[in-house]
Amino acid sequence: MDIQVRVWRQSGPSDRGRMVTYDVKDISPDASFLEMIDVLNEKLILDGDDPIAFDHDCREGICGACSMVINGVAHGPEKATTTCQLHMRHFKDGDVIDVEPWRAKAFPVIKDLVVDRTAFDQIIQAGGYISAPTGTAPDAHATPVPKKDADAAFEAATCIGCGACVAACPNGSSMLFTAAKITHLGLMPQGQPERDSRVIDMLQAQDDAGFGGCTNMGECAEVCPKGIPLSLIGRLNSDYRKAVAKS
Amino acid sequence: MAVDTPIPKTKNAAGATATPTPRTVVRPSSVTLKIIMAVSGILLILFLYVHMIGNLKIFLGGTDFDHYAHWLRDLGTPLLPHMWYLWIQRGVLTLAVLAHIYTAAVLTVRAKKARPVKYAHRPKVQGSYAARTMRWGGVIVLLFIIFHILDLTTGTVNPIGDHEHPYANVVADFAPGRWYVTLFYTLAIVAVGFHLWHGIFSAARTLGQQTEKGQRRAKTIAAVLSAVLVVGYLSVPFSVLVGLVD
């Protein structure tokens, strides 16, 4: 299939950046979206042009590296799918596809489609840990965890920290990400000692990084490649209110 | 152990907390702002419901309606002097409106700053129309509140403006000749309806609603409460317009 892509090109953090149109000919419908960009990049290199910089790592939907806003939707049109798992068969021959980076003040563009997601690391560092004794590993059944809690914690823990929630949010908020981390650790008995300080510190880190506030629109959950539910944000709000009341 | 201990220490030591502490005073967290917005919003919704029930007394006739309006001024007597209750309520409502607007403004500024470069291609957001129009809808509602107070509280822009006979003021206000007042009233009430449709759900979520089942329930309750308000409020001007109330 033949398509046209309009890609955000920005040579560096201080460059203004612009959309540049490229023709991509003879792409297999079975190619992934990233493979399509690979093919385009090979052509650009042969032509002596600068290839498009983009983040990618595992290419199997579990690392959270790929980060493209495709036709205005983070990770493209398929629900619960990362860009690397999105295939060209979901597009039509002759389509014009817009590709942009995540756009947020807290995610500055490094080059083209690559953004700096250090802000997420800062949120994790602020409270994404538990106190665990060192020494021999505890027995696996030493601390019983109700099945319901284990499942819900695991669902939250599937967050791969890609940042699509921020890219989609009209307020540039990272609430779904932070809520997933709060839920994943806060539902487990091992996460209780820091439960209050975690939510306060992580929210502070989120606000300090320049993310906006949540208005419960639900854009984030729509694009989340892992299907993290919007309701977790209510858990963050509730934990935060209780933690502040206690502090 | 020697390696483990310093790590949490540096995190909580004076050096790390010294910088954020003054900032928290200046910059309330986004969730704190949302909680203030939710609580002030709920106060205003409670008022809207009480106000609507009062409005519906117009269908009992002029004597009952005027009697109700006069009773409001003596509410709380003899514990409170004449008009005191009304002024206390006005004070609380004004504070709630100001808190609601202030927090909305701060969060809007933060949201605008959070995305300095706009998307070149951005389809309509998947959230509802109600969710998308919270900010401008709120501005329309504010303008209406100002007009409404000048119209039916102070009587400044009302054709009669007689404090002793509110029933007559209402009937004169929504007379067919003043169709533009009815139109503005209708637009504003519909804007309130949309605002609450998302607002009630959003307030529940902000105050900690966190289950999938509860989310469906909160959205249904929000839709029903908003719809009842819109119908209740619009029934008055349209009854005047068609001559049901005169």
TrEMBL record, chain A:
GO molecular function: 2 iron, 2 sulfur cluster binding; electron transfer activity; metal ion binding
Pfam name, any one: Fer4_8
GO BP annotations, alphabetical order: aerobic respiration; respiratory electron transport chain
Cofactor annotation: [3Fe-4S] cluster; [2Fe-2S] cluster
Domain 2Fe-2S ferredoxin-type residues, every copy: 18-103
InterPro entries: 2Fe-2S_ferredoxin-like_sf, 2Fe-2S_ferredoxin-type, 2Fe2S_fd_BS, 4Fe4S_Fe-S-bd, 4Fe4S_Fe_S_CS, Beta-grasp_dom_sf, Helical_ferredxn, SDH/FRD_Iron-Sulfur
Residue ranges of every copy of the 4Fe-4S ferredoxin-type domain listed in the record: 150-179
Keywords: Iron, Iron-sulfur, Metal-binding
The keyword Metal-binding appears for this protein: yes
Family from the record: Belongs to the succinate dehydrogenase/fumarate reductase iron-sulfur protein family.
Protein name: Succinate dehydrogenase
Primary gene name: sdhB
UniProtKB/TrEMBL annotation, chain B:
Compartment(s): Membrane
Alphabetical UniProt keywords: Heme, Iron, Membrane, Metal-binding, Transmembrane, Transmembrane helix
Pfam families hit by this protein: Sdh_cyt (PF01127)
Gene Ontology, cellular component aspect: membrane
Segments crossing the lipid bilayer: 31-50, 84-109, 129-150, 179-200, 221-245
InterPro entries hit by this protein: Cytochrome_b-558 (IPR011138), SQR/QFR_C/D (IPR034804), SuccDH_FuR_B_TM-su (IPR000701)
Region feature Disordered, mapped onto this chain: 1-21
GO MF, one annotated term: metal ion binding
Record protein name field: Succinate dehydrogenase
Protein source organism: Actinoplanes cyaneus
